[in-house]
Design brief:
The chain is an alpha/beta fold and 437 residues long. The protein has 3 domains: 167 residues, NAD(P)-binding Rossmann-like Domain (Rossmann fold), CATH 3.40.50; 160 residues, Dihydrodipicolinate Reductase, domain 2, CATH 3.30.360; 84 residues, Alpha-Beta Plaits (2-Layer Sandwich). Helices cover 36% and strands 25% of the residues. The strands form 2 sheets. Strands 7, 8, 9, 10, 11, 12, 13, 14, 15, 16 and 17 form an 11-stranded mixed sheet that branches. Strands 3-2-1-4-5-6 form a 6-stranded parallel sheet, sandwiched between helices. Helix 5 runs parallel beside helix 10 and helix 13 packs antiparallel against helix 14. The protein is elongated and about 80 Å long. The two termini are 47 Å apart. Bound molecules: L-homoserine. The site of L-homoserine (HSE) has 11 residues, from helix 7. Its EC number is 1.1.1.3.
Length: 437
């Protein structure tokens, strides 16, 4: 039996406290699995006095996480502080520079500084593990970095934010308002400290930027992601989607196209019969399409203390099982120095089907004018229906268009034209349709 792996944990919020508790409860089993004990020897958090429901007896306390990273009696530094800059970044950098392995759940940090940190880790020959940063407890990083070696990935997409999926699911199933669902997600501990990060798509974009790098061997580039959140999705959209055989999900999608790599986060219509449409509540899912394997779909708990702690503990166990001198694989699947610059596909070139919901005056010629704008932009319609909505009045009608495959540029031009025609009573709602098995 080897010497115990000494773990230092910075950040004792919901996830940090779960990690400490589970490492203690599962100590004997982890020792059997890793061939050595895994022991928390030091922690750092803001408030020493707070009751976290865990015992910290015999564990060294550091007020400063950077001090813990540099000087703690530890082999692994676990960063659960969160945030793109500040103490999280400073402490991870300090730990790597001091030759300590790092485990982090911090997607914002990796999206912003992942490559620089990977370069330090690779130079120092230590591990930088981040399974918990993407899709909570789903082992998607290990799958992409290890299990899919040799596969060329063509598209990766998924439900990467538990809060948004929880909100959309409850809005659909219970007809509850957006605000009430968000308040419940916050109460249950799924949402980020600033929930606009969840609902406006930033959290999904951070996670997607990491998956894109792993999938395509490119530099991480979150600022290149086209992003729309779910805050303007209404009950009218959800009902219309259901009637047309679709369900609305906030998806992050990265795919290789002829004009470069497309990265986008937006509310998306997926066929109700598709597997990803069955992913409800806080559950996340990631679909990966490859040349050798075909399509793989992983789903599981994407947010919350235990889901995230499970991934963190898996990463710690991998380090416990590794041996000095063993050449670990690169952090983002290829050596950080070799990750290629990112060729961004323009969003206007995106090709796909579209759902367009219009609120119009009920007058002669309105349908004809709408159809003309579509035809003028070479958009072929799969369906055009006047929707029977309880909110419609005698002069106010809802029209739903579903297009065959077209381009974003054509749809934007057609909608601009409809706005000029002055038949519209509200801002048009445009939701992209995603192909999903
Ligand atoms: N706020 C995130 C979510 C937590 O809702 O998925 C996990 O990253």
């Amino acid at each position: 039996m080897g010497e115990a792996l000494r773990v230092g944990i910075a950040g004792l919020g919901t996830v940090g406290a779960s990690v400490v508790r589970i490492l203690a409860e599962k100590s004997a089993e982890l020792t059997r699995q890793c061939g050595r004990a895994v022991t928390v020897t030091a922690v750092s958090a803001r408030n020493r006095a707070r009751d976290r429901g865990i015992t910290l007896d015999g564990i060294a306390w550091f007020d400063d996480p950077v001090e813990l990273a540099r000087k703690g009696d530890i082999d692994v530094f676990v960063e659960l502080i969160g945030g793109e800059e500040g103490a999280a970044k400073a402490s991870v950098k300090a730990a790597l520079e001091a030759g300590r392995h790092v485990v982090t759940a911090n997607k914002a940090l990796l999206a912003a500084s992942g490559l620089a940190l990977a370069e330090i880790a690779e130079k120092k020959g230590v591990l930088l593990n981040y399974e918990a940063a993407v899709a909570g407890g789903i082992p998607v990083i290990k799958t992409m970095r290890e299990a899919l070696a040799g596969n060329a990935i063509t598209r990766v997409f998924g439900i990467l934010n538990g809060t948004c999926n929880y909100i959309l699911t409850r809005m659909e199933q219970e007809g509850i308002s957006f605000a009430d669902c968000l308040a419940d997600a916050q109460r249950l501990g799924y949402a980020e400290a600033d929930p606009t990060f969840d609902i406006e798509g930033h959290d999904t974009a951070h996670k997607l930027s990491i998956l894109t790098s792993l999938a395509f061997g490119t530099k991480i580039s979150p600022s290149a992601i086209y992003m729309e959140g779910i805050s303007n999705i209404t009950q009218a959209d959800i009902r219309a989607a259901g009637e047309l055989g679709y369900r609305i999900k906030l998806l992050g999608v990265a795919q290789r196209t002829d004009s470069g790599i497309e990265q986008r986060v937006h509310p998306t219509m997926v066929p109700t019969a598709s597997v990803i449409a069955q992913v409800h509540g806080v559950t996340n899912a990631v679909a990966i399409e490859t040349d050798i394997l075909g399509e793989l779909l992983l789903s599981g708990p994407g947010a919350g203390g235990n889901a995230t702690a499970s991934a963190v503990i898996g990463d710690i166990a991998d380090i416990a099982k590794s041996r000095p001198g063993f050449q670990h694989g690169p952090v983002f699947g290829r050596p950080a120095k070799e990750l290629a610059p990112y060729r961004k596909a323009r969003m206007r070139a995106h090709a796909g089907g579209y759902f367009i919901r219009l609120t119009v005056h009920d007058r002669t010629g309105v349908f004809a004018a709408i159809a003309k704008r579509m035809a003028d932009n070479d958009i072929s319609l799969e369906s055009i229906v006047q929707h029977a909505s309880g909110e419609d009045s005698s002069d106010r009608k809802t029209v739903i268009l579903v297009t065959h495959e077209t381009t974003e540029a054509a749809v934007r031009k057609a909608v601009e034209g409809m706005e000029k025609d002055k038949h519209l009573l509200d801002k048009p709602q445009v939701i992209r349709i995603e192909r999903a098995a």
